[in-house]
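Minutes, project huddle
Topic: does the predicted pose make sense with zinc ion bound?
PN asked that the exact inputs be recorded in the minutes so nobody has to dig through chat later. Recorded below.
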Amino acid sequence: MEKNIKILSIESSCDETSAAVVVNGRNVLSNIIASQIAIHTKFGGVVPEVASRKHIEAIAGVVDSAMKEAKLTFQEIDAIGVTYGPGLVGALLVGVQYAKGLSYATHKPLIAVNHIEGHISANFIQYKDLKPPFLCLVVSGGHTFIVYAKDYGEFEVMGQTRDDAAGEAFDKVARAIGLGYPGGPKIDKISKEGNENAIKFPRASFHDESLDFSFSGVKSSVLNYLNKMEMKGEQINKADVAASFQKAVVDVLVENTIKACRIKKVDKIAVAGGVASNSCLRKTLKEVGEINNITVLFPEPILCTDNAAMIGSAAYFDYIKGKRATLDFNAIPNLKLGE
Ligand code: KG4
Ligand code: ZN
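Predicted holo structure (C-alpha cells), as shared on screen:
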C-alpha cells in the first residue's frame, strides 16, 4: 500500500493566520483559521503593519491547534508547506520564518507554495476525483485570473485583470455605498433585495481577442452614479446599486471564462478565491455552464477564502514531484503564477 503523505501547511499572506494538516493533497485532518477581519474592519481595510503583528501573536497557537486537531506529532508529519507569495511582505514573512524554524527543528522538508496555486488546489480537496486538465477562474481580493490547469502544478495564465481585482472592486464599491469591510459578502447579501437590471453599469472588454478584465471602469461608474444622485438630492437604493454592480462584474467573469473553455476545448471549470463564494457568480456560471455542457465546480466557502488546507494540497503535488525549498528561500510579495 502507498504511504500517506501528511503535510502541515501554513498560510499568512494577508489577514488570516491559518495552519492545516492535509493527507495526500485531498483529505483535511485540520484547518484552523484565525481571522483578523474584526480588527481591520475598524480601518475599512487591511492595515499591513497590524496584519503582521497579529500573525506573530497568532501563529504558534494556530499551528499547535492544527496539530492537536489532526492528532499528530511533528515526527509523524512528512513535510511543511508554506505560502511564500504573492501577498503582503510583512505578513508572508511571519509564516515563512515560522515554517523555516519548524523545519530546522524537526528535520522535515520545506515546500514553498504560491498562494494562487493554493486557491486553485482548494478544488482538489472539494472534488476528490478532480484531475487536470481544467479551466480555473481565480477571483480573490488581490487577483483575477483565467488559468488553464494543464497538469498538477502546471498553469498557463490566459487572462487577468489590468487594474483592480474583482474582490477589490467589490470592497471599494461596498465602501462607497456605506456597507463596510469586507465588502464582497455584504454586496452579495444586500443584492438579494435589489434589482440587478435597475442601473446599467458598463461591462469592459478589450478589442483584441484578449481574455483580460478591467474593473476600474465599473467601479468609477458606480462612484459617478452615487455623486450624481447626491447632487440631485435623490435617495439611492443601495440594494439596486449593489445588485447592478455585482451583475456587471459577474457577466464579464462568466463571458471570458466560457470563451477560455472554448479555446482550450475543456468541459470543466473550477472556480477559486474569496469571490468564488459569491452567490450571483455561482448561479450564473452554473446556468451558462449547463447551456454549454460545461461542468462548473465551486469549493465550499471556507475553502474559497484564505485557508491553509488549500496550501497543504498544493504543497502535496509539489512534494510528490520532488520539489523542496532550502532554508534560504524568501517571501516574494509579487510572486507570479507558475514561478
Ligand atoms: O481569497 P481571499 O480570501 O483573499 C485574497 O487572497 O485576496 O478573498 C477575499 C476577497 C475580498 O475582496 C472579499 O470581499 C471577497 O473575496 N469576497 C466576496 C464574497 N466573499 C468574499 N466577494 C463577493 N461575494 C462574496 N460572497
Ligand atoms: Zn487568497
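Observations noted during the meeting:
- The pocket of KG4 (ligand 1) is lined by residues 14, 140-142, 167, 170-171, 182-185, 188, 273-275, 277-278, 305-306 (CB under 6 Å).
- Residues 6-122+304-319 form a domain with the Nucleotidyltransferase; domain 5 fold (CATH 3.30.420.40).
No decisions taken; revisit at the next huddle.
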